[in-house]
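Apologies for my clumsy wording, but are you able to produce some protein sequence, whichever is easiest, and the tokens describing how it folds?
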Amino acid sequence: MDCLFFDGTFYRNNELIELGALSKTSLELGHIPIRSDDGVVGSMDILKGIKVCRKIYTHLNNTNPLVVSNSPERLEVEKDGFEVAEDGMKIFL
């Protein structure tokens, strides 16, 4: 079974700015955002075409809406075939 793990720290590029937490974008902090917005291509769009059995986002920041299991953003990511890692998650390869 093929499995792709990818950094999911931030959902949007300007996530921290919108929350008033920091004046830097995710790209300025070295993280590709999951969702494309404001002319920034997100990792979901980049990874959609990769043929692997499982695509799992890891390392989510506590500001990322994917940490909420029933958030619209989480449901959208899962609908597009991605998984979101959980604390204590075990993956058998």
User: Anything to note?
Assistant: The two ends are 6 Å apart (CA to CA). Strands lie at 3-7, 54-58, 82-84. The chain has one domain: 3-84. The mean pLDDT is 94.
